[in-house]
Amino acid sequence: MYVAYSSLAPAFLASAAGTETLQQQLLLRNGKAGTIDTTASSISDIWSSLYSIPRPSGAVAYKQSAWDKVAVASERETLTNSLTTYVGGDSTTQRRLYFSISQWRAFSHIS
After folding, report:
1. 70-87 mean pLDDT
2. Are residues 8 and 67 in contact, defined by beta-carbon separation less than 8 angstroms?
3. How far apart are the C-alpha atoms of 77 and 61, rounded to whole Å?
């Protein structure tokens, strides 16, 4: 469940944020003003507690990359920390990881 959540949530949350105004307008027309998308709200709360930071807001929340950056940084930190735990802090292995990350950044243009 976690893997599916972590890979799909940013796209869903960005989409939900980007269409929130339209959703509210449609609901208002149909006499259901004030209805809240509980699924988006729940997943957003889970995302926020999972990464221990407030969820993106405003126009930034419409961009999947705003949600993804946090997840990628968290996973990178977990991976880096696991090298210390499982490899005993082997500096060669850590240098290989950092080199791989820098090459991936250069190739993908993601910071």
Report:
1. 75
2. no
3. 23
